[in-house]
Structures are given as structure tokens and as C-alpha cells.
Amino acid sequence: MDLPCVQWQDHVAQKWRALEPKLKEQFTSLLEIDDVFRCGLSLVRQDDLDFLQQESAAYSVQKDAELAAKCRVRGNSSFKTKNYTAAALHYSKGICFAPSTSEQLSLCYANRSATLYHLQHYQECLDDIDRAVKNGYPSHLLHKLEDRRTLCFKHLSVHEKGREDDQNPASNDCKGSDTANSPSVGPLTVGICPQVVVDSTVEKGRHLVAVNRIAAGEVILTDRPYSCVLLPGMEEVKGKVGRYGREREVLFGVEDRRCHRCLTETLILVPCDRCSYSRYCSTGCQQEAWEEHHRWECALGADLMAMGVMSQLALRLALKAGLKNFLLARESIRDKHKECFNNHSSDPSTSSYGGSYLNVYNLLHHLNHHSPALRFMCAVTAATLYLKLSKAGPPPVSWSHTPQGPNKEGGDADWNAELWMLGSAVLQHILQLRCNAQAIVVLQDTGATNSPVQSNREIRIATAVFPTLSLLNHSCCPNTSLVFSTGGIIEPSGSALSADFSGGEAEWRHKAQGVTVTVRAAKLITPGQEILHCYGPHSSRMVTQERRRLLQEQYYFLCQCEACSQQQQDVEEPRQQEPGAEGRDLGLLCIKCKGSLKKRSEDREAGFVCSRSSCSHCMSLSDVNNSLQEIRVNLEKAVELMETDRPGEALRLLKKTLCQSGLILAETHPLQGELADATARAYASLGDWNSAASHLERSAVAIASQFGKESVELGRQLFKLAQLHFNGGSRGAALSVIPKVRRLLCLHCGPHCHELQELKAMEDCLQG
């Protein structure tokens, strides 16, 4: 949840309405962030703090042995059905809830070790056994752990011998995974490639422009977030699919299976010692998060969840920057030295790339564009957080004037008069994030564990601020592709990064660990072209009028990108269009002659008319919408049937729906593509690979029409097609489609993505 909870929004809105007109006018007239914050701070009362305390009770992050026991019971149930992934996640939740003095902690560790053993994570199993013993596992049960420990050592010794054998080339199998996994060059460099420079104009602000030709697929920049916050929410975790869905799936929050610092996905989370919410992939991430922000966030965990992700991220930005960097950034603005891109400071917090607070501070906050009521909500929220933080303990070390840090005796008495700037910084970042926050998205598997064909969708797992990525302006038809990576060391994704970057300073040429974003050219970019990416509204998913409205509401600009300008010109000069072009874009067919339908006028309620003059049959908007809704309902029912392991019933419904949709939908319509994709899944579940491939090819036609023939969406669909051909033994068809998939995925995702490794394995087996 990005914004504060609805109850807090309503509370502040009521407070705004109750303000005296003169005070409202005074607040509205304020033009500086500092003044807005100080005014908000002066208006926060004890009842506001009490209200937040009351609402945050719903987001309790306290340790609780009873909740830990309930998680352990759920884990036991999943373990009995051999759903070991879900069991491990339940036990991990129990570990996070369990107080350090509770027996539940050792029991959850011991039970998790059992799931890890069955998942063949033997070293991790041994680690959990040690944790269980360390935390007082009952002595009369220790023999179980010792037996499991012995089995782990046996498996590890066999595995080690296998690794030695694998070093013999003669023992390598046909998958070729060792080659695909091995790095070809050194660690990834964070920064901008030499073919691009930072430019600045009054109209566009700071932005990136190509100075040399950039080929499609080349890496333009790689960036790490200055800070990020994991999104609490539901994410599907697929277990073993049982008959009729009795053990079909278990839902866990994203926060239950990802490190709260580097976002890496893991079953073996390390809990915060003090709260039940924050958890990490390792003690290293745990300690780094503690030193950077969690030391101060921990006591405010429930309050921050009630205040929303944007408020928490704004606080993290301020805590990480500290008073010194905040004042340096502010001074650079006052001295009008905004163009600091050649700064070679060895301080990574102030250098140009790889964690620049100066770049973050420079982001536009659009204070005067936000409505007075929204400004008021942000100001009161920042002020309330500041007061809660001041009452929780001494001020953060990063905001202390003294090298030794503040007086550790605690209380708000240690908060001197100048520390209101921390609250002002939080307010500035809240306002900035409304226009500059970046969603971190990853591909999530949406198919059953035993599904023969990959099925996935993009989900948002975190919100972040990327100092360098934030330089890119928007286009509804961007010339770049973004790929996010989480956890570990990310290997280089192309030759573009093998050369020295301009600037060449060793300070920011470091290994990219944790969260990274890689931006690649999605098409040929010629010298002088601006580097652009999409802020959300994309020309392939949304009509021009709706895109422009959303961009104006959130980002305060009227989009004049190539797609918007061209489509606006088409509206103003309809005679230049090919006959029926607009109807083909709609993907709707006349039920009488199968000609394409087009809008009767720009009026949304006007309905449609056949583009063929010999027919000119009209259909009302309601008739078309009713037909589409009926198709969508049947599609949803069919998908649900497949998820409950009833593909035969799903296929019968899909065949009926395809006959119905063929009367009104062209092959290029997105809904027709979804139907074809679902039908392919149903056939694949029944083992009819040829029929599955035939329908997936139809789906690929719709995707190519919607997203383009060079899109990553088409690449992923063709990847599924390659899987179907491979599973069906269609050697020629599979070898024919694999090069197309490889080119598209390499273009958008780089040559080391896991889909390409699977393609290589399929290709080697087919050719061998």
C-alpha cells in the first residue's frame, strides 16, 4: 500500500476541512518545503498521535509465541501433504513471531530443518539444526536432529564427489547449464555506458541523450536503488497440486519470502531480533539494514505500515542520507550548482552514480502542482512520523552533529532545534516519490508445480528510488527495456559494459549486489536521440486520451511522445489513415460481414459501425461490452477449472467460448489471444502437444499485434511455444522457433537470463 491507510487519510482530510479559512489560505500560500513542514508540525496535536496509535494496532509487529505456534501447526499440515515449500514458509513465519525465550523458536527451526532436508537443501538444513539446538530444543527430541544431521552429511559427501566428477568433460550431460551459468567477464559495473551523456534543458530537465549509435540489446545503464521498501501484500506460492485443488495453492505475502533489504527470494529467512515483521536472507543483510535504517524503524514498524510505503521509503531516504549529505545537497541547490555529474568524490553517498543522494535530492517535488489538501496530508504525515521518531528514542546518528552520536539516554530531550530538518527532508521525499518512485517488478510463476508449460506474470514487489534511472524521461512507446535483479552478484549482460565507462572513476566502479536495474536499448538508437522509458501508461495497453489523463494527474505534464503525437495527428487528419485502420486496431468484427468495426465518433457512448461501406452495420456500445464480458467470464471460469486440475472441463468451455468470440473478435484482439493461450494450456495439460502448439501460435499473433513483433511479451510467448514443440517431440518446429526466442529474450533480458539457459538445453538435446 503506497498511500497511508484509508483511516489516516480520512482523519487528515477531516482535519483539513476543520481548519479556519485564514489558516487554510496561509498554508496554501507557502512555497518552500521547510515552511510547509513547520506549519504541519505546528498543527499536529496529541489526538493525531493517539489516532495513529489506535490505527497502527491493526499492524502489530510484536513477537508473539501464540502466533508462532499457529504458524508451526500450519507448517505441520503442509508438511504432512508433502507441500514442503509452503511448510518451510510457515515455519519461517513462526520463527519471526517467536520470542527469543520461547520454546517455539527452537521447534520452528527444527521443523524447518526437516522441510529443507526434503527439499535437498542439506547445508541449510544443518544450519537450522544448529539454530534449534542453540535456542534450547527439547533434550528428549535431540536424537531426531542428530539423525537428520547424519543424513545431511552423507548427502553432502556424495554431492561433493559428484562435483569432482562433473569437472571431467566426459561426464557433462546435454543440458549445457555449466556454460550458461559461468561468468564470461568480470563483475558488473554500475553506471551509464559511454555512448550516452547527461543533458539538461528547461523543458526536459536532466535527461539522457545518445552521442553514438546504440544497437538494440546493448546495455545503456545499470543502477542500484538509493533505497527501497518491500511491498506488503499477497503473492501466490504454488505447492504440489492435488486432485480437484484440495492442496492447490497457499498464499503468502511478498514480505514472507523475500529479504527486506536485497529482495532476494528465499525460504530461509533470518528474523529481526526485536520485531516480527522485518526479515532477511542473511545475517549480513540483517546487520546492514539495522545500521542503515531499521535501528530507528523497528520501534515504529506498525506506524510505518499504517502510514504506507511512500512514507516509509521517504524516511529511509532521509535516514540513509544523514544531515551532512542533506546539507551538502541543499547548499548545492542554493549555489545553483545543479550540474554535478562530473563529481569525483570518493564518498559514495555524494558521487554521481551508484547511490547519489544529490541526484535524489534534485528530483522534482512539484510542491505547487499538488492540491492543497494533498500537501496538507503529506505535511501532517511527515510531521507525525517525526514526532513519533523523536519520542521513540535518541535522534539517528546520521543526523547528529557530534561524531560520537547523540546522548544515548533517550527521549525527545536530545532532539535539538535543528533536527526539524529531518522531518522536512521526509516531507520533501514524500512529495518527490509521488512522481519519481519506481516499481520493482519480477516474473512470478502462475502455473501449477506440475505444469508442463511455463506460465507467469509480472508482479510488483517493491518501491524504490534509482538515482540514475530517474534521469530517464517518459515515452508511451519507449526505446528501452528494463530488467530488475534481486540478491547476489549480477553478472554482466552484454559487451556494452565490458568497456570503460566515461568518467572511469574507481569509486563507483564496484560490484552490483542486491537490487539492480539494467536498461537496454529495445531498438536502434541513433546519435541525438533521447533515452526514454515508460512510466506506466503504454501505447500498447491504453488509448491516448486515457494515457495523457493519467500522466497529467500523476506527473503533471501533457505527454507529447511519438505515440501520443502520432495518434493525435491521426484523429485530427483521419483522411491520411488507411481505410479501416482504426477498426483493425480495435480488433472487433462486424457480426454480419466479418468486416472490421470502427468507432462511429469520438463520443465514447456512440457505438461502432462496420468499416465496409457495403455493409455499414451498427452495434451499440452496450451490445459489444456485453459480448466481451460474457467471453471474459467464461475465460475466468475455464482458468479456474484448470487450476483445480479439471482441464477436460476447461477445454470444453474454451471451445464453446472460442466459437462465440470468433463472431466478434479478430485474431489480433488481446482477449482472443488470452483465449487461445488458455486453450493451449488445457491441451498441454491433457498431453495433446500439437493442438496446444497450434493455439499458442494463434495467441502469439494477438500478442505481436498488441505489443509488437520485437516485444519481450512476444518473446515469452514464443518461449512457451518452444517448450510445447520440445515436449511434443516436434524437432523441426522447436529448432525453428528457438532462434526467434533467443533473439527477443537476449534483446530485452540479456544473454544470461534463465529462459535462455533452458533454451540452450533444449537445443542441445534436439541437436544431439
Quickly list its features.
768 residues; alpha+beta; Serine Threonine Protein Phosphatase 5, Tetratricopeptide repeat; four-stranded antiparallel sheet; three-stranded antiparallel sheet
Report on this model:
Among the domains are: 153 residues, no CATH class; 94 residues, Tetratricopeptide repeat domain (Serine Threonine Protein Phosphatase 5, Tetratricopeptide repeat), CATH 1.25.40; 137 residues, Serine Threonine Protein Phosphatase 5, Tetratricopeptide repeat. The chain contains 26 helices and 18 strands. The chain has a four-stranded antiparallel beta sheet. The protein is globular.
Q: Label the structural class.
A: alpha+beta
Using the CA coordinates, give the radius of gyration: 28 Å
The major sheet is characterized as: 4 strands, antiparallel
Task: Let me know the average pLDDT.
Answer: 83
Spatial separation of the terminal alpha carbons:
51 Å
Topology:
Elements: H1 6-18, H2 21-29, H3 33-43, H4 46-56, H5 65-80, H6 84-97, H7 103-118, H8 122-134, H9 142-166, H10 177-181, E1 191-192, E2 196-201, E3 205-210, E4 219-223, E5 227-230, E6 234-238, E7 249-253, E8 270-271, E9 279-280, H11 283-297, H12 301-307, H13 309-334, H14 357-361, H15 372-392, H16 420-436, E10 438-445, E11 456-465, E12 473-474, E13 480-485, E14 516-521, E15 532-533, H17 544-555, H18 562-572, H19 581-586, E16 597-599, E17 608-610, E18 618-619, H20 621-643, H21 647-661, H22 670-685, H23 689-707, H24 712-727, H25 731-749, H26 754-767
Parallel strand pairs: 12-15
Antiparallel strand pairs: 1-4, 2-3, 4-14, 5-11, 6-7, 8-9, 10-11, 13-14, 16-17, 17-18
Helix pairs in contact: 1-15, 3-15, 3-16, 4-12, 5-6, 5-7, 6-7, 7-8, 8-9, 13-16, 15-16, 20-21, 20-22, 21-22, 22-23, 23-24, 24-25, 24-26, 25-26
GO molecular function, one term: histone deacetylase binding
GO biological process, one term: methylation
Pfam family, one: zf-MYND
